[in-house]
Amino acid sequence: MKFPIKTTVTLLVLGGVGAAIVLPAQKYLAARNRPNYKQAEVTRGPIVATVSATGTIQPVLSVSVGTFVSGPITGLYVDFNSEVKKDQVLAKIDPRLYDAAVARDRASVASANANLATRKAEVQNVKALLQRAVNDEQRAIKVRRENKDFLSDAEMDQVKFNRMSLDAQLLVAEAAVQQAEAAVQQAEANLKTSVANLEYTNIKSPVAGIVINKKIDEGQTLAAQFQTPELFTVAPDMRTKMHILATVDEADIGLIREAQRRKLPVKFTVDAYPDDLFEGTIEQIRLSSATNQNVVTYPVIVAAANPDLKLLPGMTASISFQVDETRDGLRIPNAALRFFPRREQVRPEDRKLLEGVHREERTDEDSASAKQTAADKAEARRNRSRRHVWVVEGDLLRAVEVRTGPSDNKNTVLVSGDLKEGQSLVVGIQPRE
User: Fold this and answer.
1) CA–centroid distance for 368 within its chain
2) Which of 26, 51, 98, 225 is 20 to 30 Å from the Cα of 11, by its Cα?
3) How many C-beta neighbours within 10 Å does residue 243 have?
4) What is the pLDDT at residue 350?
């Protein structure tokens, strides 16, 4: 009887010792294996939604200055970056040939005018002779009417044909006057052309601006017979306004047009001044699309002031188009929207949401090959604002459905959902040490 009692007592003692050891160990292992969640709070504040793009800075207008005449450059009065006024002489072509042409054409005009004066004098002379012949013919007719025998038929024919000859000579003289007048007009036109060509030897700026390109040097010979050479490029009003030519994806054009309608600002930076933040406005959304590797983009023109002349042609701008803004609202960390727990970490009633998430993920991965109707795609896009975030509840996670609004690179606006300011949301899992 004593042996079984001792054995039983021993076994009970050993069992108690084992339980005292195993149960804490199990609790320790459970606590050690429990996920250590990273959490972030729901905050309140502004959110500015943006669309990012890159662009190239360009002058609002670039005027190419060429030459209409040929010859060697005898004077060059500006250089790169020179600020010029309208009609300022930038360079000069050797004018000697054009001076000679002007002198020649002036002499031609004088000669043509002298010839015209001579032809007009001939007309007056012929008119005088014709008037005398007409008078003689009228007297002869009158005399013959009184007495037929006073003039013979031969004498009458001589008077008549003399008058007819002078009529013809007057027509010839008047035609010669018209020809001389045309010659004067031609000579004057040639003179105007020569004077214009002489003036063209002074290459002037058509606008006030800054010389951003120069393609000639003094002594260089220009040949403008076949193609007008480009000598300078002048950009006006660079201190007043510059353009940034941005390339925007077609998926964002709707947002950009709405931002233009609402006159939302555009912020951008350039590598030359990384600490400076520049601001502009959307001036134009051009309809001339471009396709590169099946990606359709549209050019968007952003206008920006440039009083310090920091924005130079050709610079690359990193642009943020403001497309929406919430001044004061609850903000969900974007990391909370991207977090998806494993099935065993979620309470049972929310596990069906994970199955839906996995199906959506597979659908997104296979979207290139999936055959969806336009209505399905539109519905899916409308439902993109319906999301779930996760909060710690005991040892498991509970899902909270939310509807989201505008987003920036850190937070997203909470439109609706059972969340409060300061509430913690799961954004990740801390790795075990």
Assistant:
1) 33
2) 26
3) 21
4) 87
What is the DSSP track for 310-336? ---TT-EEEEEEEEEEEEEEEEEEHHH
- Tell me which residue of 254, 255, 279 sits closest to 266, measured CA to CA: 279
* Cβ pair 288, 299 in contact under 8 A: yes
- Mean pLDDT of the 147-153 span: 77
- State the Cα–Cα distance between residues 148 and 161, nearest whole angstrom: 19
pTM exceeding 0.90:
no
Give pLDDT tens digits for 276-325: 999 999 999 999 999 999 999 999 999 999 999 999 999 999 999 999 98
How far is it, in rounded angstroms, from Cα 381 to Cα 364?
Answer: 12
In b/e form, how buried is each residue of 384-411, taking b as 16+ CB within 10 angstroms?
Answer: eeebbbbbeeeebbbbbebebbbbbeeb
With tokens 């300078």, the residue in question is 232
Q: Tell me the percentage of the chain whose pLDDT exceeds 70.
A: 84
Q: CATH classification of 63-94+202-235, choosing from 3.30.360.10, 2.40.50.100, 3.20.20.80, 3.10.20.740?
A: 2.40.50.100
- Annotated domain spans of the chain: 63-94+202-235, 96-200
Helix/strand/coil (H/E/C) assignment for every residue in 377-394: HHHHHHHHHEEEEEEEEC
The pLDDT of 239-253, averaged and rounded, is 95
Q: Is 416 helix (H, G, I), strand (E, B) or coil?
A: strand
Tens digit of each residue's pLDDT (9 = 90 or more) over 325-384: 888 889 999 999 999 898 888 998 988 888 755 444 444 445 544 566 766 666 666 666
- The whole-angstrom separation of Cα 286 and Cα 247 is 10
**Cα separation of 335 and 411, whole Å?**
8
> Quick one: CA torsion of 93, 95, 101, 105, rounded to 10 degrees?
110
Query: Strands 424-430, 36-41: parallel, antiparallel or unpaired by DSSP?
Result: antiparallel
